[in-house]
Design brief:
Elements: H1 2-6, E1 11-13, H2 24-31, E2 36-39, H3 44-47, E3 55-57, H4 59-63, H5 65-76, H6 79-92, H7 98-111
Parallel strand pairs: 1-2, 2-3
């Protein structure tokens, strides 16, 4: 997947809150240093911060294709912002290692 993501300047993943619990492609894109535009669904709202490591839009903005187009063009043209999202997104991914995932899962099992 890294080859696929490496060809992107931005990754846009717009999910509906009542359907999605946390899109894994966002983790893949962040792991590859690709800036993300997304909606606040599932784990996104607890782990990503608007204008720090991602551009988070609400569901209404996601359905307004004119506004979405302007957001995409704006971020695509801002090397400074994409660089910030890339750096902070890669730093965030240090919290999503397999070891940390397994440790957290074991804590859940042991607490039951």
């Amino acid at each position: 997947m890294a080859g696929f993501y490496s060809k992107m300047r931005l990754f846009c993943c717009l999910s509906k809150p009542d359907i999605e619990t946390g899109p894994l492609p966002i983790l893949e894109a962040l792991s590859c240093g690709i800036p993300v535009i997304t909606t606040a669904v599932g784990w996104v709202k607890d782990n990503l911060t608007h204008m720090e490591n991602a551009f988070i839009i609400n569901e209404k903005e996601a359905s307004d294709y004119g506004k979405l187009s302007r957001i995409l063009k704006n971020i695509n043209g801002r090397d400074d912002l994409r660089g910030k999202f890339k750096e902070n997104g890669l730093r965030l991914m240090n919290n999503f290692t397999l070891d940390i995932y397994c440790d957290n899962l074991m804590k859940i099992y042991e607490s039951k």
